[in-house]
Amino acid sequence: MPLQINGRQHVVVLEPRVSLLDALREHLDLTGSKKGCDQGTCGSCTVWIDGRRVLACLTLAVAASGHEIVTIEGLADGDQLHPMQRAFIEYDAFQCGYCTSGQIMSAIKVIEEGNAGTDEDIGEFMSGNICRCAAYPNIRAAIRHVRDEAGGRS
Amino acid sequence: MRPLTYSRAADVQDAIALATANPASAFLAGGTTEVDLIRAGISRSEHLVDINELPLRGVEDLPDGGLHIGALARMSDVARTPRVVERYPAISRALLLGASEQLRNMASMGGNLRQRTRCAYLRDGVSPCNKREPGSGCAALDGFNRGHAILGTSEHCIATHPSDVAVALVAFDAVIRTVGPEGERAIPFDDFFLLPGDTPQLEHPIAPGELIVGIDVPGAPIARGSVYLKFRDRQSYEFALVSVAAAIEVDDNVVAGVRIAMGGIGTKPWRARRAETALVGSPPNETSFRHAAAVELAEAVVREHNAFKVELAQRAMVRGLVHSLNGRQS
Predict the structure, then answer these.
(1) Within a domain: residue B83?
(2) How many CB atoms lie within 10 A of CB B286?
(3) pLDDT, mean of residues A66-77
(4) What CATH number belongs to A83-149?
(5) According to the model, what pLDDT value does residue B90 have?
(6) Domain spanning A2-74 has what CATH number?
């Protein structure tokens, strides 16, 4: 089946039961999306499909065929990190880093969706991304920084 | 490991034909319940019919001022549809208080109605569970049952229905539209969810191959002042211990109309008809609200860990009615 990932077409042969997350990690060497719970509760596998943030663990790869998939590996422009990636480094928005790619994939969308107006909104609309190290204050700081840099509350 | 095959339906008739051809079929929309339950070994589906290409995503006006919500409309889209926010704020609010934004982006309205209970004894795959293995018993009765139901239960099952939006929809007398091998049907919302009784494994009056194509929400001016309140252990991304959808209309200082439904306490999305009947014609004050709530909860059956829900549910109902009366939306 063809999979359109980060602007590139990949062709893989997979059983229907294989999740998009396993397809990315085990078959396409795109290991930036992490497997935390594998049951749709932790958010560490967050990717974008057709521009919306979704969970790769509950998406079957076969159902994602024909759609535009973006993973954490697709954010940087060459050596130039995405502003949200830079902000996460600048604001020390992680400790162990396992949830970070999912946090970043959500964080960019939370601003685009217009759900980052207040800290309360950020908390509510980032609640699908669990951080076991509880780096939440710094994650919020990184999101505020990008939001304000982007010229307000988008 | 069970076999699993997959096909994509081109239109509604194709979907029904594909699902009817294999009795172990399930429709695949957002997948947030089905994929999870297949992986956990709870779902017995062996063939998935992907219905995501069907044109069932719109929200359209009905002639009576109500709305038709397509079965494949995503929760996050419906929550932000201006006509839903204006006419049925409780529906929008209930959607936004459910799950996380990633799950709301995936999950469809039709799938939401067919999601399974979060009872841990169903999902662990080994405990006695009459939904999973009819006749095996119910581990929740004397197990950890803090989240379980207190209304509509039976000695065979006390699993709580988990949906938020279904609570708001049942308050407004929504109707579920289906198409199946036998043709089209309109199922009143309250009839779509079966009480467990002696057959907790039967959850919906829906035939093999029958597809939910949409939800009709009748026009209801009262719903414009509706609220949805949710009480839970975490502030976000958690199922309700108790939730309430409420809308109230006052005329000449008596309650002229009222809609109340509750989540977290019933084995189905719980329309509080007894409370509604008790309230109509009463003065709109906390004493009446408290009395109505007591009437509704009078037949609650509690277990070891969930007795607190009786009082919490009554307070929630009172608060929901007060907020609707005062024009607060949350």
Answers:
(1) no
(2) 12
(3) 98
(4) 1.10.150.120
(5) 98
(6) 3.10.20.30
In chain A, domain spans = 2-74, 83-149
Residue A93 · residue A142 · CB < 8 Å = yes
Q: What is the CATH number of the domain that holds B14?
A: 3.30.43.10
In angstroms, rounded to a whole number, what is the distance separating the alpha carbons of residues A126 and B284? 39
Distance linking the first and last C-alpha atoms of chain B: 46
Q: Mutation test of the interface with chain A: which of B97, B100, B103, B106, choosing the one with the most A Cβ atoms within 10 A?
A: B100
Q: What is the pLDDT of residue A154?
A: 41
With an 8 Å Cβ cutoff, is A35 touching chain B?
Answer: no
Q: How far apart are CA B207 and CA B199, in angstroms?
A: 16
How many domains is chain B partitioned into structurally? 2
Q: What is the pLDDT of residue B330?
A: 59
The whole-angstrom distance between A80's CA and the closest CA on chain B is: 27
Bridge pairing between strands B242-251 and B254-263: antiparallel
CA gap B70, B72 in Å, rounded: 5
Q: Closest-CA residue in chain A for B47?
A: A16
Structure tokens given for B226: 């509706």
Q: Give the HSE-up count for residue A129: Cα atoms under 13 Å, Cβ half-sphere.
A: 33
In a domain, B96, yes or no: no
Q: Is the pLDDT of residue A71 over 90?
A: yes
What band does A151 get if pLDDT is binned at 50, 70 and 90?
A: low
- At A61, is the secondary structure helix, strand, or coil? helix
* B87/B108 Cα distance (integer angstroms): 20
Residue B106 located in a structural domain: no
Tally Cβ neighbours within 10 Å of residue A33.
23
* pLDDT value for B1: 74
CA gap A84, B52 in Å, rounded: 32
- State the nearest Cα–Cα gap between A20 and chain B, in angstroms: 11
- Put residue B248 in one of left, alpha, beta given phi > 0 → left and psi -120 to 50 → alpha: beta
Tell me the per-residue pLDDT of B25-41, one tens digit each, with 9 for 90 and over: 999 999 999 999 999 99
- So what's the pLDDT on residue B329? 61
Of B326, B137, B181, B316, nearest in space to B242 by CA: B316
ipTM for the whole predicted complex goes beyond 0.90: yes
List, for chain B, all residue ranges whose pLDDT scores fall below the cut of 50. none
Q: Do A15 and B4 touch (CB under 8 A)?
A: yes
Please state, as a whole number, how many other Cβ atoms lie within 10 Å of the Cβ of residue A118.
11
Indicate the length of chain A as a whole number.
154
